[in-house]
Fold each of these.
Amino acid sequence: MKDTYILISVLFFIFTLSNYLTVHCQVEPKETLAKLWNIENDEIPQYLSIEKNLSMADGILKPLLDDDNFGGTYIDAIQNKIFVNTLNFTKAEQIKNLTEIRQYINLLNFTRTSNSTAKLNSRF
Ligand SMILES: *[C@@H]1O[C@H](CO)[C@@H](O)[C@H](O)[C@H]1NC(C)=O
Ligand SMILES: *[C@@H]1O[C@H](CO)[C@@H](O)[C@H](O)[C@H]1NC(C)=O
Ligand SMILES: *[C@@H]1O[C@H](CO)[C@@H](O)[C@H](O)[C@H]1NC(C)=O
Ligand SMILES: *[C@@H]1O[C@H](CO)[C@@H](O)[C@H](O)[C@H]1NC(C)=O
Ligand SMILES: *[C@@H]1O[C@H](CO)[C@@H](O)[C@H](O)[C@H]1NC(C)=O
């Protein structure tokens, strides 16, 4: 009877431990994200929401960028900006002036580059 009690105790301990480890492992990717962005764990939801917002705006912007005047975009959640690699700033002004983009202007940063998407693609 005593042996059975010990056995059950041990099994219960293992069960509890494995639950703890499972929970612990689910938390792990968040900590990695915090490290990547150099922020605290409790700031993650805020920056994920910014990232989601930027991705949405990026999805609207991308189809409007042609391959000769632009060289792709990248999102920076920490700065809350979409950086747009730009060759032709006249074209950039026209994009900024579009009705669907105007509301996102303060999220955009057009940065000079000499590599267009067309040029980058032709290298491969
Ligand atoms: C998402 O984007 C909209 C439009 O630019 C802005 O009004 C809103 O504050 C943004 N939300 C976050 C969490 O950045
Ligand atoms: C820059 O864009 C403008 C507006 O689309 C266009 O008229 C002009 O030819 C472009 N310049 C170059 C160097 O491609
Ligand atoms: C922006 O749009 C307005 C009207 O849609 C137009 O009059 C103006 O010339 C445009 N500006 C640029 C820089 O394209
Ligand atoms: C765009 O980004 C560059 C580099 O981070 C910065 O120097 C510049 O002030 C930014 N411009 C705007 C309008 O945010
Ligand atoms: C353009 O691409 C070349 C080769 O990949 C790279 O060395 C250069 O730094 C790039 N220039 C800019 C402004 O991104």
Amino acid sequence: MKKTYLLTPGPTQIPESVSSIFARPIIHHRTPAFQAIFDDVRGNLKYLFQTKQDVLVLTCTGTGGMDAAVSNLFRRGDKVLVVNGGKFGERWTKIALAYGLAPIELKVENGEAIEPSQLEALAQVNPDARAVLFQASETSTGVRMPTQEICRIAKSAGMLSVCDAITACGVFDLPMDDWGIDVLITGSQKALMIPPGLAMIALSEKAWAMTESCDLPHFYFDLPKERKAQAKGQTAWTPAISLLQGLQESLRLLKEEGLHNVFRRHELLAKATRNAVAALGLELLAKKAPSTAVTAVRLPASIKDGKAVPKLMRDKYGVTIVGGQDELEGKIIRLSHFGYVDRFDITTGISCLELVLNELGHKVELGKGVGAVLKTFAEG
Ligand SMILES: *Cc1c(COP(=O)(O)O)cnc(C)c1O
């Protein structure tokens, strides 16, 4: 017998009160019953995004939300600045190129956040750029980018700030209206604790105004059309009805805990994880600005096959974490601690890591990381 534990940065674990909803009979979406659910969801999404704007729900994963943002905002040939700190930053560039934009990258080393002055300098030499596209939390490296500063710089340069908050929204504080985030995007299988299949996106007034001059091709993701439909409690196309029912429950759970308590829980879990990493003599990839969503850990040189670490954790012990992608493949592991995660998920994850490091020939004192985790929790 082996229990399984999911500690990945999406999909994340699903609370039972959410998953039980998916066994219900399907309802039709052009009905008062659906409309009541959707109205409740739309209200609570404003709470989650900390905005007065409409938060639109799209049937797609997070990348679809990024795609929709680009294809609804810009004009062919538009110059955009992209903060590229890893796999997801790179995705902004790829989407921009797919639509014939001219992305200019601010490339940062894996594990580093940008310095605001770097972006300021890039904006200065590219005053005609129309937007800054970035990640609030770069999931591939576990880095938290300075969102508030990025938005401030974009605004003063007359550019739009377009924020992929897919592992940030509902993880740490990201007040859309207060910080002047023009476009905020998230996805369902991350902090929202439901299966993949929904993206959520909100636009500022300035961003809505930009959609009017957009000349890029799009059909399925037509944000002005969605905005009109969703204001009436409907969607342009058939919505993912069951996922929306799950979302209603997960938003209720987030609200019940209180958004700021959710952020504090993630901070504590991230801190416990980092303390365990230090106690085990391992090194963080993101030293200066670690995200509270996911902790990326450099694997020691004594482990010859880095990919064996997550593999053994999963296959032998049932604990699923992820490794690195592209040039970080086999070099790091990433432990996620957001969503439906509590103290004993982290305790379990670290204890499994200790066993596996030993088995793969990197000797650590058993219980050392776990001790650091428990000490962090005891101190609160
Ligand atoms: C998960 C994730 C995405 C979206 O990925 P999908 O596979 O389309 O859901 C985008 N950006 C970040 C930062 C993510 O963590």
